[in-house]
Amino acid sequence: MAEHKVVVVGAGMAGLVSALQLAHAGLQVTVIDKASAPGGKIRQLMPDGMPVDSGPTVFTMRWVFDQIMASVGTRLESQLNIQPLSVLARHFWEDGSQLDLYADPAQSLDAVARFAGRAEAERFARFCHTARQVYDALEGPFIKSPSPTMAHMMTQLGPRGLATLASVGPMRSLWNSLGRHFNDPRLRQLFARYATYCGSSPWEAPATLMLIAQVEMDGVWTVHGGMHALASCLMRLGQANGVNYVFSSECERIEMSQGRVSGVRLASGDSLRADSVVFNGDIAALRKGLLGPGVQKSVQGKVQPRSLSAVTWSMHADTQGMALDRHNVFFNNDYASEFDDIFMQKRMPQQPTVYVCAQDRGTDTPPPGAERLLCLVNAPARGDKRLSEDELHACAVSSQARMAKAGLHLSLESSASCIRTTPQDFHQLFPATGGALYGQATHGWMAAFARSNARSQAKGLYLAGGSVHPGPGVPMAAMSGQLAAAALMADLGLTSLSHKTATSGGTLTH
Question: Do the bridges between strand 327-330 and strand 354-358 make them parallel or antiparallel, or are there none, so unpaired?
Fold first, then answer.
């Protein structure tokens, strides 16, 4: 199959993984991307000339990457310097209270007991047990499944899994379900935030998303060199396996011939012949015809509501006197208003929750001076309908006030030391999305089943990325890349990766 040519459109996480695995199987693979470097949403900006991770910042589910590395004959530790974080996240509330959650479950239990009392700590322990059960029940039948359906999942769950889902109440919202677990509204708010990891509202997301809490409790790591080092690592391995990467080259059209994919045409006018194409982009771009009429109907199913967008500030700033950890969350008092503003009123939240990633903290002694920070607030995905500067300024002011109550004083103003990114900017980076960063919102029990799988309706076109199964997030996007590569190879009659030497790529070190 060495003569089979594959073009991967998009060098995001899913595209990088697909390209690596397909090339390792012996196919001729070219990756094209309009950006100048790999990573997609995993991007770095340079305030004050300092590299700041300005996309995903949390490294979880490392088993996904252990599996990817093993599939090409190497190990994660040989390629990247990663360290586990002892503090998963630090949380602040407007009443002055603060709670750290830890990698060590016993430490978290003690912290919750000091924070909210022994009875609430016992409820927390029961919640953790339930989150583990939900994750264990759904990992195989849903997360790892190439094309999950309700009927198939119910069959695969078995009596124990069905009982777990029944106890959670999958038809309930996450917010409603958490009210049954916690009496303290702050803990309900903390764990409701996990819905935003899928770009969704806790009032609309299904209760099963509590499994994300288990994902974090299984471990959070920091990557030396930032998350961008992960993208660079996958590209380096791809190059060692023969992948050709072409950057600053935008795909204008996916070409069809005689009922199947035949290649791609670039904005430059050049064309690349392809026997198969992996599209690592938001499927909204296909549906809107941005990749040509031949593939416009390649994605079937009802169009789902957009997920959250964001406003971010990538900064190099002084934080003296503030006890930040790596991952920090500043909550507002009226949590419901944030999601009402975004999803119902389609406006910037008047009382935003603020996430701050302090990228020089968590493992070593923080620097004595300015630090690299990413500040993020959720926003409506209306980047194709301009947000006013007044709206954006008001959000910055309220965000500054929220952090200042906890003692963190930052100026969220664009300058050499602060670079702002808005939904309009994200819409330009990821066309047809309105700036939505997580594909479709996971609203309602059936929303997860509405995602497309790896095989499109166009012969030879495969789909990967956060807008398709199994969903958004770095490890999930990586899994979608695996699923796209597996589907393509299965359609070619390749049931496993080619038998290259076990040390293929293994001599590459970070």
Answer: antiparallel
* Measured distance CA(454)–CA(483) in Å, rounded: 6
Tokens of 367: 């620097």
DSSP of 430-495, one letter per residue? STTSTT-SSSB---STTGGGGS--SB-SSBTEEEESTTSTT-SSHHHHHHHHHHHHHHHHHHTT--
Beta strands in 72-140 (DSSP E): 82-84, 87-92, 98-102
Supply φ then ψ for residue 443, to 5 degrees. -110, 115
Contact between residue 52 and residue 46 where contact means Cβ atoms under 8 Å apart: yes
At position 267, the amino acid (one-letter code) is: A
User: Which residues in the chain come in under a pLDDT of 50?
Assistant: 497-510
Please give the helix or strand (H or E) that residue 123 lies within, else none.
helix 118-138
Map tokens 């664009």 to a residue: 414
Residue 122 dihedral angles phi and psi, to the nearest 5°: -65, -40
Q: What 3-state DSSP class applies to 355?
A: strand
Give dist(CA 301, CA 448) in Å, integer. Answer: 12
Distances (CA, A) of 119 to 126, 129, 181, 360, 452: 11, 16, 11, 36, 43
Task: Give tens-digit pLDDT for 150-179.
Answer: 777 777 777 777 777 777 777 799 999 999
18 within 8 A of 463, measured Cβ to Cβ: no
Alpha carbon distance 496, 64 (integer Å): 17
Q: DSSP string spanning 151-209? A: HHHHHHHHHHHHHHHHHH-TTSBHHHHHHHH-SSHHHHHHHHGGGGGGT--TTTSBGGG
pTM: 0.93
Cis preceding linkage at 470, omega within 30: yes
What lies within 8 Å, CB to CB, of 200 at 6+ separation is 209, 307, 308, 438, 441, 442, 443
DSSP 8-state symbol, 341:
I
- DSSP alpha helix (H) spans, 4-117: 13-24, 62-71, 76-79, 105-116
Residue carrying the six token digits 């199913």: 301
Task: Map tokens 């029990």 to a residue.
Answer: 445
Q: Is-contact 244 30, C-beta < 8 A?
A: yes
